[in-house]
Amino acid sequence: MRNEITLNHGSGGRQMHELIEKNIKKVLGENTTSDDSAVVEINGRVAFTTDSYVVDPLFFPGGNIGALAVSGTVNDLLTCGAYPKFLSLALIIEDGFSINQLDEIIKTIAIFAKDAGIRIVTGDTKVVERGKGDGIFINTAGVGSVPEGRNISSSLVKPGDIIMVTGDMGTHEMAMFKARENPPFELNIVSDVAPLNIQTLDLLRRTSDIHCIKDPTRGGLASALHEISTNSSCSIEIDESSVPVHPQVAGACALLGFDPLYMANEGKFIITGEAAIEEHVKNVFPDAVTIGKVTSGSDVYLKTEGGGIRRLGMLETMQLPRIC
Predict the structure, then answer these.
(1) Which pTM value belongs to this model?
(2) How many CA atoms lie within 13 A of 23 on its CB side?
(3) Last residue of a domain, which of 119, 145, 171?
């Protein structure tokens, strides 16, 4: 085994999770959460999250690194039922980076933050030597408020829950592939990157039966379902024919050998809860579908279109590096 970090440790799959559990959380202790945001008590319940964005390319169909930075942080706060309030913005910029590109990224950040109803209140800027920053890296931290009595976590899923997704899987990663590779076939796909605050907060006003909200980013749907299964000590069964995938994404995956179940998304949620949530979720997210259910056990299974059942593992090796 190589005693060094590889790109697979950042893929969102098995190797990344093993690195976090064995080399980071084991040392830091039990205070670190397994969810995308932590809920802490500071004169009330406060959600706190942080993320770093190192995407390549910086601009892609449907957005840029600035859109990712705001949307990803806002959506992480939403996964614990928080009202997004404040955002920090830290920039690591490489010597020689285009001022015009920086202006476009900052304008995008301002627009997305306004749409998400979140205020950028602090930040930092560093410049590194040419060749040591890959253009620009962005780090954000987000803070939100969580109402008393609202408990949403990947550790609260239970047998009998239904599993829903709010739209097509894999469009963000396929948009990144289009931007990076310029494939010689038709691919009119744009990233789904978006903050989901309006829909999600509307949903949480309609029902208190939501147990988990999870964004299937790096590692895709399959890896996110594994996180839920592990954190809740339950099994998940999904139906392959029910998982929504855009026809162009499905066709490109067939040509390229990609699997849409492991492809990143930046504007979609996995939502679990009691069966009664289905109508509410569909009213708020018109493209939402139910793809499976939660059972007793401790793994993730896929009912194939051919009628078989197979275990659905976590992502082992990345399909595309640096996608979010």
Answers:
(1) 0.92
(2) 10
(3) 145
